Amino acid sequence: MKYMLIHCVDESAELSPDDDGREHGSAERSLAAWIEEMEGRGVLVHGDRLQPVAAAMTVRVRGSEVLIADGPFAETKEQVAGYDVIECADLDEAIEVASGHPTARIGTVEVRPLWQP
Amino acid sequence: MTGDWDLAEECAQDAFAQALKSWPRDGVPRRPGAWLTTVARNRATDRLRRGAAETAKLKEAAVLSPAEDPVTGDGGRDDSGIPDDRLRLMFTCCHPALPLEARVALTLRTLAGLTTAEIARAFLIPEPTMAKRLARAKHKIRDAGIPYRVPPAHLLPERTAGVLAVLYLLFNEGYAATAGSDIIRQGLCAEAIRLARVLARLMSDEPEALGLLALMLFHDSRRAGRTDDAGDLVTLEDQDRAGWDRRQIGEGTGLLEAALRRGRPGAYQLQAAIAACHATAPDAAATNWARIARLYRQLAELAPSPVVELNRAVAVAMADGPAAGLELLEALEASGALAGYHLLPATRADLLRRLGRPGEAAASYRQAVRLAPTDAERRYLHRRLAETGHA
Description:
Oligomer: heterodimer
Order of helices and strands of chain A: EHHEEEEHHE
Distance between the termini of chain B: 64 Å
Number of domains of chain B: 2
Largest sheet of chain A: 4 strands, antiparallel
Radius of gyration of chain B: 21 Å
CATH class of chain A: Alpha Beta
Largest sheet of chain B: none
Structural class of chain A: alpha+beta
CATH topology of chain A: Alpha-Beta Plaits
Structural class of chain B: mainly alpha
CATH architecture of chain A: 2-Layer Sandwich
Number of helices of chain B: 19
Strand order of the largest sheet of chain A: 2-5-1-6
Helix content of chain B: 55-70%
Number of strands of chain A: 6
Number of domains of chain A: 1
Number of helices of chain A: 4
Helix content of chain A: 25-40%
CATH superfamily of chain A: Dimeric alpha+beta barrel
Strand content of chain B: under 5%
Strand content of chain A: 35-45%
Shape of chain A: globular
């Protein structure tokens, strides 16, 4: 079954050191390790990191008008920072994969199955 | 293998229906309602492994009698002919990805065989709403790929805690049902006990499963004494203990002893040990409050919560006097954790009354009345307020 992992973090928290004083670089290393492990297990289909929400804008079409606004779709403390599409046997495996990702530690990972016809 | 949920449910229902037919049904539940400071928890707890020293401490703290076969269950029925789909169903119904109220409803539907209408009545919500809740839950199981299985060993501790929490929630729902409630609502305790028995039998190595069943039995044993003929609350100290169900107390005691022998103390075992202190005391005056206070302290270490602290304050007040209890209570109030919880001012009122400060007690009783959630509790608090002479 395919799931999307939607990584939500507080952008200001990402840039500061971890609680126990480790540096930002450590999060990068954990991410690389996670990617390597999940590719090795054959569960990682594809994924990417997004630029910060400062680079985001929204597009809505209402009638004939194309409405563009600066910023993300919702003003929340945590914002989408990246995504992964994984393929797992069941939800428990998806949960295990998600929990190993560094954003699970510093933010929230939404796990949602892809649409099935 | 996730698959057709309805098919799996059909098969389990069929086997379970067979079992239900042959299990003796409890008599009509008697009127519930109580004013007891109980700890209601709905979160998983860590399972701590402690050494023999801890077990010895717990044994010393609990009131234990020689054990007979702990899991007396449903008359020693041999259930080898029934597939253990029940266990798989239970874990699936209680999967953490499902919303809590859906877990409870699904457990009743699939494991207790209640109809949608009955479950709706039990939780005082309209039937179409309940039907939607159940349908959504089943769809989620299918769409999100919730596996239909007993979880693997590394997940078992937290998932078992989740199942126990659902069963305890169910029990508390029935326990809270007032005398005028639908009979199905009052019957939730019996359903919860029945399911806890199944779990205790299928997971007899899990001491918390035994502990939960013991706890439920101790609570349930007091049904007859908890309300008077007017439907008003009778406190623990005023209850006629002759009306307590000795068979349930005996069974609970045996289960608790069996659980403690496993050497892995946990929150339900501790709560059961506390309930055992009450259940086995011949009268209120004989209650070993010092032991209860110690048990609450252990519980606070294991599963800290403001409600546990409140209960501990009550026990300390009984063991060491109201002033000592008031000190703990004031610390709790300062933390702001239980703001809006009626038992906080109610307890404060009681301690002030015992300290001979009726004016202050009255003020606290008034506060408690404003926050009390049921008529029975309001009536009880009004009575106490009147007794202060400052109403």
